[in-house]
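A quick word before the example. In earlier lectures we treated sequence and structure as two separate objects. From today on, think of them as two lines of the same record. Here is Transcriptional regulatory protein LiaR written that way.
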Amino acid sequence: MIRVLIADDQAIVRTGIAMILTAENDIEVVAEAEDGVQAVEQAARHRPDVVLMDVRMPRLDGLDALRALTRPTADHTPKVVMVTTFDDEEYVTTALQSGACGFILKDSGPRLLAEAVRAAAEGDSLISPSITVRLLRRLMAPGTRRSPDTVLSLREVDVVRLVAQGLTNAEIAQALYITVGTVKTHLGNIQSKLAARNRVEIAAWAWRVGLAHQD
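And the structure line, produced from the sequence above:
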């Protein structure tokens, strides 16, 4: 079971998310929090696998609570997925740079919410499709391109290109005729070489070096 903590200052939102997730056979909601301070406290107490964190909350907002949960000295470091109504690129960028492994909008729907939890638990990242490409284009700094084969092997370049297209590990394995375990090994090596914390940062790098450009 994937253990989840829901942090949102609106009780009706917490209840709705909890109903969606508890309907899944592999997800268990172990705690709720109404602000960032409670989120940090409940995470320490219940040690969830995944935290669904609202951005704007009283006492301690979601971004500060995220930083507290992902700090290097933390005793327990859950995966954090930001869930918000605010389709704001600055929030997304800050959250990902602060250690979030996903960012979805509250109106994304039940299926995407559950997928985001599963992706986070597996070490993957999921961002609402409505903001993914725009975010990556914003992260792409001009003048930073360099040949990807100076950093990665040809097979790793293939994996990165597919990550940037939004494919899951299983889809990448199928496309490249390799096992999911091999994909995970490649991703681990890629993260080490690029100093990337998650697949979103890998995708952002792909945009910077031109691997994700479409004609």
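Notice the following. The chain is about 50% helix and 15% strand. We will return to this example when we discuss secondary structure assignment.
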